[in-house]
Amino acid sequence: MELQSTREVKSDLEIAQAASMQHISNIAKKLNISEDDLELYGKYKAKIPLHLIDEDIVAQNNLILVTALTPTPAGEGKTTVSIGLTEGLNKIGKQATVVLREPSLGPVFGIKGGAAGGGYSQVLPMEDINLHFTGDFSAVEKANNLLSALIDNNIQSKTRSLNIDPRTVIWKRVIDMNDRALRDIVIGLGGTGNSIPRQDGFNITAASEIMAILCMAKGLDDLKEKLGSIFVGFTFDKKPIYARDLNAQGSMALLLKDAVKPNLVQTLEGNPAIIHGGPFANIAQGTNTIIATKMGLSLSDYVVTEAGFGADLGAEKFLNIKSVVGGLKPKAMVIVATIRALRHHGGASKEEYNTPSKERVDIGFANLAKHIENAKKFGLNPVIAINNFISDSEAEIALIKTRCAEMGVEAVMSQGWELGGDGTTDLARAVVRSVEDGNNDFTPLYDHKAPVAEKIETIAREIYGADGVDFSKQALLDMVKIDKLGLNDLPVCMAKTQKSFSDNEKLINRPKGFKVTVREFEIAAGAGFIIPILGKMMRMPGLPAVPASEGMDIDNDGVVTGLS
């Protein structure tokens, strides 16, 4: 059975470049936003002001969270499904807006590509969104590096020194590029006028705590308070130093004065899209800003949003951290599944991902089943979106639908990549049924005030399926530090591989009989969470042997090629 049309296959960029975009003021009208409230960035992008958020309306409208099973390295298409679902909802008569994260330049020029969707489920203007967009990432980078400069300036100062011990400074500089050579560096060389030599390093901008703070802030005042709460390090006499001790929060907020406002763009079919913030999901919360989500809910009946990587990472953090802090209550959850990922979890090699195998899909279903079980622990009965590929067989699809039905959930084909909104109307109707049936009553998994070790154990046992947690000597020392800093009541933002429920990326499908190990903790006091590190997680990726950038170009007419 062929499930996709015979439409000529074009690249994402070719589809985006062939689209006829509407002026952004016309998109704004669909949300009842006046032209006076738009801050235009050309014809097709605009910032929208925070005063449009209405908390009463936010509580009434419908938030749909899109997540996924444990993905293959290529990802399973959450953004594409989120955009396609939004098109489908609008096609069946619902007022819907998609709210997404902004892409990072590192993956764009590396191997993963951009984050504007794919095929006929994209947000536009694709080139701008995947490149510099409205400058939000640049503003985050500058705010981050201003704090770095202030720290080293204070260490150098002889008149206004806070007595910072350079050996304890945890704050790093950032750049929005995959550059492994910057992971660990030495700064301050060249003489006494160039500050005190010390070890430092760069993270990628999406991994900056400033990015996490931007996404957790509820407004400008809250943003400044969170910036001031950034933990920097200790003095020589063991007293904690925060960004507010350097009087940094005001100037950092000034650099973020435009970045704090959400960005309005459009989908391929001319529906509203809000794109704002871009933290990674394996080392941060992996969702767009609270501000953007509330903006969408203030202006639309339905808001579709996604959380990065598999549900054990992005969705867990969306539900336990973002939703609790932001006062958000998802009305439905969609778990994106691909048959290629189920084959992968069933034992297929990369070369066999596109080879039909009902047996491997049957084995691999255990991974999806665990994610379904996890969703129900939050009080959410998920809809399964089977993101369709041309290699999917009828037998494999029927198997998934049957197995999902046995678990009391509905599995629906999603063909947004190939057909846009026409390919997602069935999924849209299933989501509406899920909302209107009243079978979803979101409840977080743990109390933020529970002990740190208990919160980690809860996630490890309930979400990962682990038998328990081992804490290294360093992790135990870090928990003593967390206690002394008075940060025990913060939620935990687990950092681990996205390739497995466990902390070992080789344990695919639904591993059992394992424990996870917390190697150490990072502190994000400004963002409002602590980060247990499971395994060795890098905050600065490297480029592949053949970076995507090698295939990119622009001609004299401004036509871009090679972007994906």
**Can you summarize the main beta sheet?**
12 strands, mixed
Strand portion, in percent? 15-25%
Q: How many helices does DSSP assign?
A: 19
The assigned CATH architecture of the largest domain is: 3-Layer(aba) Sandwich
Kindly report how far apart the N and C termini lie. 29 Å
Task: Provide the low-confidence segments as ranges.
Answer: 1-6
Tell me which oligomeric state these chains represent.
single chain
Overall strand count: 23
Helix-strand category: alpha/beta
Q: Summarize the amount of helix as a percent range.
A: 25-40%
Q: State mean pLDDT (0 to 100 scale).
A: 95
CATH uppermost class of the largest domain: Alpha Beta
CATH superfamily of the largest domain: P-loop containing nucleotide triphosphate hydrolases
**Count of separate structural domains:** 3
- Taken from the alpha-carbon principal axes, the silhouette is globular
User: What do we call the CATH topology of the largest domain?
Assistant: Rossmann fold
Computed CA radius of gyration, to the nearest angstrom: 23 Å
Structure summarized in a few sentences:
With 564 residues, the protein is of the alpha/beta class. Strands 1, 2, 3, 4, 5, 6, 13, 14, 15, 16, 17 and 18 form a 12-stranded mixed β-sheet that branches. It has a 3-stranded mixed β-sheet with strand order 19-20-21. The chain has a two-stranded parallel ribbon with strand order 7-10.
